[in-house]
Amino acid sequence: MATSAKPIIEVRGLTKRFGSAVTALDHCDLSIFPGEVVVIVGPSGSGKSTLLRSLNLLETPTEGQVIFEGVDLAGKDVDINRHRQRMGMVFQHFNLFPHMTVLKNLTLAPMTVKGVSQQQAEATARELLKTVGLQDRENAYPIQLSGGQKQRIAIVRALCMQPDVMLFDEPTSALDPEMVGEVLEVMRGLAARGMTMVVVTHEMGFAREVGTRVLFMDAGRILVDAPPQQFFSHPDNPRLSEFLSKVL
Amino acid sequence: MTPLMLAAGLFDFSFLPRYSSYFIKGVQYTLILSAAAVVLAIVPALLLALMRLSKSRVLRFIAGAYISVFRSTPMLVQLSIVYFGLFSVIILPSYMLFGFIDISMFIPGVVALALNSAAYVAEIFRAGILAVDQGQTEAARSLGLTQGQTMKLIVLPQAVKNILPTLANELVTMIKESSICGTLMGIQELMWGAKTVATTTHIIMAPYLVAAVIYFCINFPATKAIEALERRMRRGDVR
Ligand SMILES: Nc1ncnc2c1ncn2[C@@H]1O[C@H](COP(=O)(O)OP(=O)(O)OP(=O)(O)O)[C@@H](O)[C@H]1O
Ligand SMILES: [Mg+2]
Fold first, then answer.
1. Domain residues for B210?
2. In this complex, which of A98, A112, A161 lies closest to B149 when CB atoms are compared?
3. What is the 8-class DSSP label of residue A43?
4. ipTM over the 0.90 cut-off
5. Are the C-beta atoms of residues B205 and B10 closer than 8 Å to each other?
6. Residue A30: its H or E element
7. A110-128: average pLDDT
8. Number of structural domains, chain B?
9. First vs last Cα of chain B: how many Å apart?
10. How many CB atoms lie within 10 A of CB A80?
11. Domain containing B208 — which CATH number?
């Protein structure tokens, strides 16, 4: 990948402990460059979510740095809300706001956080809704949508803030199998348009085809960081081989 | 008086036509008093709940102390302290609201009830806020909303749904508890009405029986309605 470009996110010596017993992340280092699609895989409890959630400081690092666009987010005087505007996040359970219509879900943050006018926010929202084929559902409430539709709306909600990076935490794990495809399709489209993405997923096909790099995590450490071809064809780590033999 | 005559006297309702206004005015007073107390308790209760949930140890302690004190002492004692303490210093003008509510009595009563109610309603709010899925907060914060915006726009609107039935229960409690205002400070609510009729007519029990029936006829259907609402909310999403 572009070695000359500056990383958009840089993680240095990131450690996260929950209490004294659990070390969810153990000195992780990671650089993510603009336009990359970094896919994170690993067994349950290996720290994938914690790593992803540390990137926008939903988890506060115990030690180490998360440098986003040149700013250490864990620093003392950082206005985290300002930086979060430029990092979209998509959750396993969608987390749409159930008391608001789709359109309100999409325009809330641009209007409250960025001060975009309602007219402008709605125009952007409708434009993006069209790209995921849900332009006719803007007045629906989340409860009236299928899982796949909810997740596509959740992606659009994050995109409405026009982020520089999109973070995905198992975006298809809570979906019925027949709805996984439509969500992955939207994510492929995003990647094709050059969005920088960090994706925690169990979809090995997506990792192989869309990922520019694949990370393997185990026990809070990033054990492997390799292009997909090498990652899947020549796993040179015994823990990874074992993991792949189970999931593939 | 033979025991039989005494027993008959207990159920002597002959006072009703003449003294009915005591009960009618009384029940109106009771409803206004309790509703005002609960409404007045809402804002302080919300503040107490937010303090209890805040990161600041000092705020948490203050709110916790307030709530513990008011939940661990009898209402009658709280009422006495507020009425004979606080409102012996603050002198209120005598002004009639709706023609039968003397605000120099009403305000101390409402304040005392509201101070008590705030402690209970605060816990109702806290539970309602905690019952909102943590993922909602995470989604809002990940979009760049501040903690305050998240609370106001995302968490509280959803918490209200959890809170409403319990808040209605608090109103039922207040309708009952407000009766001590009549006994202690002579506020002319339903219980005071019953007591006054009993002393004036020398009919010992029947007036209280009438009061009990009225309290029951308000609170029992209300409680049933709240239960039904709660069941419906648990079953499906009521917006
Ligand atoms: N809030 C928390 N409090 C305590 N322990 C936690 C917390 N969040 C995560 N952990 C622990 O940290 C470790 C890493 O968790 P994490 O959720 O990051 O794993 P994961 O790789 O995302 O797993 P999964 O595939 O099941 O989602 C686990 O041992 C987990 O139990
Ligand atoms: Mg996870």
1. 3-238
2. A112
3. S
4. yes
5. yes
6. strand A22-32
7. 97
8. 1
9. 62
10. 19
11. 1.10.3720.10
